[in-house]
Amino acid sequence: MNTNDCSLIEPLLAAYLDGELAPAAAERLDVHLAACEGCRTVLGELAEVDRLLGDDAIPVPTGQEWAAVEWRLLARTRRVFAGRLVRTCALAAAAVALLGALAWLAVRVFPPAGTVDGPGAYTAQGGKTPAGDEETLGISVEHVERF
Ligand SMILES: [Zn+2]
Description:
Layout: H1 6-9, H2 13-17, H3 23-35, H4 37-53, H5 63-109, H6 141-146
Helix pairs in contact: 3-4
Bound molecules: zinc ion.
């Protein structure tokens, strides 16, 4: 290890401070720290953090507290998904209504072949015109009704 490279030294400082380094590595850090004011400053800041934290362990949530957190997260997740489901269904219903309206409009504007209005012909609504001239299109109503 190059003891002059601070970027290699700094990640080891916390372990150094806690006495977790192997003796040889700790000796190399001692050499670097003796010559490097920047790393000594970082080591001093880490020592200050340790001092401020003292012996007070970071509180660990109890099982009951974790259960409460999980419950709140689950409830929030359900609300989010329920909202998305409602929006998705509303959007799908609007799309179906729009397609239905477009289909109705298309049939009204461009009636399918064989549904031309006229005596004896079928209308776009599927009924016969009242005049009853069955030979207008060359096909009798009985012939159409058979198929
Ligand atoms: Zn350094």
